Amino acid sequence: MPEIYKPGYLEAIFGPMKSGKSEYLIRMFNELRYSDIKGIVFKPAVNTREPGIASRGSNMQLEAIVIDEKYPEKILSHLETLECKFVGIDEAQFFTDNLVDVVEDLIKKEYHVIVCGLLLSFRGEPFGPMPSLVGRANHVTRLTAICEYPNCNHWAVLTQRLIDGKPSPYDSPLVLIEKSGQSDNYEPRCVNHHQVPKKPKT
Length: 202
Ligand SMILES: [Zn+2]
What we know:
Layout: E1 9-14, H1 21-31, E2 39-44, E3 53-54, E4 61-62, E5 65-67, H2 74-80, E6 86-89, H3 98-108, E7 112-117, H4 130-136, E8 139-142, E9 145-146, E10 155-156, E11 158-163, E12 166-167, E13 184-189
Parallel strand pairs: 1-7, 1-8, 2-5, 2-6, 6-7
Antiparallel strand pairs: 3-4, 9-10, 11-12, 11-13
The structure holds zinc ion.
């Protein structure tokens, strides 16, 4: 069996909505159960309904420590009191750019870090610290989904935001806190079917 823990190592997992990112992360941490390595997962507080990480496609779950996304450095203070060298960070795109410094710090301290999240926002643009983290990763896992546009079934690399069933315009907030009475959801889309009304031409 290959060594699970690699000191000072960064792995990145990214892909659009419904590409199985959480499932992938949960599987990785479940594998630790068969070793003597302790792992811990952090996630941002934004839009959180539950403390753990759950996979939509199955009933797999993973415990996670919730951190205020504005203060990713709190990950470091949490780890000071924990006997653990294997660290996961889920939904990394929601943290401020300071997460990059925090991850670099962890690498220097010989942690094995796995960051997981969306590389691109609903606008199809770089999302938070994720691109900088992917650029620093020693190993990258890129997941794809299937485009949910009717009758497409092509590989999807982008995330479509829909508000009440309609594509969300470019100028709507990057992070949307759910309002009562309004339903927003996300689905994977291919480049042909990704719609962002009012998006400026590049
Ligand atoms: Zn499509």
